[in-house]
Amino acid sequence: MSSSYIWGTSMNGGIYRLESKTSTWDRVSGRGVQCHLFKTVSAVDDCVWALGTDSQLYIYALSSDVPIRCPVATYENQRWNPLDKFTGRKLLPTDRYAYSSEDGKVHVPKEGFKRPSEHWDWEEEWMLDENIRGEVTDKGGWQYAIDFPAKYHPEKKWNSCVRRRRWIRYRRYIALDTWAKISAIKEEDPFLEPFVDVAIGGQSLPNHPAGHLCVWAVSTLGKVYVRTNVSRQNPEGDLWNPIELGCGHSVHAISVGPLGHVWAVTWTGKCMTRKCVSWDIQYGKSWVEVEVPDENDRLCQVSVGIKAVWATCTSGKVWFRRGVDGKSEYNFMGTSWIQMVGEMSSVSIGQADQVLGIGFKDRRLYYRSGISASELSGKIWQPMTSQMTRQMSSGLSASPSLSSVASFDSYSSLSTMATESIKSVSIEQLNANSSSMKSNSSSINKTIPLSNSSSDEVDLTTKSSTINSREDSTNSSKMHSFVDLSNEMPKVKVKESVSRSSSYSSDASDTVIDFVNDFDDDVVTTCTPTVSIDVPTVSIDVPELNVSLDVPTVSIDVTQSVLIYTQSVLMCQS
Fold this sequence. Notes:
- 10% of the residues lie in helices and 35% in strands.
- The protein contains five helices and 39 strands.
- A hairpin with a 5-residue loop joins β29 (355-359) and β30 (365-368).
- The termini are far apart.
């Protein structure tokens, strides 16, 4: 069974991949590439396209047991005359070129063949094809006929007036397992119209050869382009063809599904999709606008699957498009939007419409659990964690901080990685800090079992955990919590500072409590954690306050007042 990968770009511009068989992120670097930093990535099972920080596109083709070889051919044509016999120098004006295409309409000399890019190399010199599509040829690879064009045969007859033979040469793609730069829209100056987004898909489009891909890109001018003739045998494709937008729209983000369906987001936050996409019209006929889920919020990104379309807004809201069926000619748009719980900065749909997302605030990787044929929207977001390589941990936090992600992994692999990674990350990350945690413990300890029966409880069944403690006379402003994993895991401790009697929201932070909250019950039952709370004593020295008041002495001369009062009384009596 071949490996499958989850690809992501980090906040520092590096591209990493997580193999389904391991739990370690590996940085993907290339040899001989000037641009090692990238903005976004789009992936299928054997090929990855990425947008560099120089606003140019790069491709990473994975190597396999079968080399990528592409033959080129030209046909040598000759006519017989009595003097020179068979020659190509004296063809009639109505004849084909001396070296031409199979139908004779295009002049194809040997020296006219050039390598498409520096990522190709010639294997050998020109050689004769003595078995043209299973047809036997004469000595020297010649086939004879009465005239051009006609039915050719290997034997020379008395009326054989013309002949032809086929020359072939192979070129090999040498840029495997490394980043190869794709030609720009305007090759004379790549910075006249650089790129802002790229998306690949169409790998499951019916009636197309294996390895066929649809590659769509958006330029800084808001124009949409499609890369022609992209396949496993021609990873880089040929040319950029513009796709008319109409109605004055300007696009900044685009997504392509496995069946070739294309959805785009405009600079004004509106959404469009390409209609009439089919195996014979792989690029569709025209655009049709889809109503936005929220008039007060703008869409910023969209991802397309077979029977699902997911989108994110600038506020972090996540929307699921109901009723989408990529296999139907009439239900490719879906019917309505449904808001999902949680906030994501971007989402990516992989095989079987499985969904990965990057957290809006914590920038960590999540997968949507519970997605099935009957429940396309899934149930809840589950965090995915894994061991980090030395290169990645040097530029990132303990868990991958991603800016974009692309996945073509199966649901079972995602579930397995999520379960295994929580064990390894919990143990390794906690052991690294256990020594410093123990040194901070004090003589006052209170052990609180993680159950609902205690007055000091930690609820592990809800999305948010509330830690309540008994009121203490000291009214300490903070407390330190310790968690013991003493069952099947090594005994380690986690340190986390929270406010007393505050609501603790589990947003995939680096604590064991959060991991237990975000995963299923079977993970919770694997350990019997306890919480030890250290309440430090806080003393406040209040200085004595001495207050002295100077009250002035007030003297009142009442003699004159008494005399006046006595005189008034005597006058009244008289």
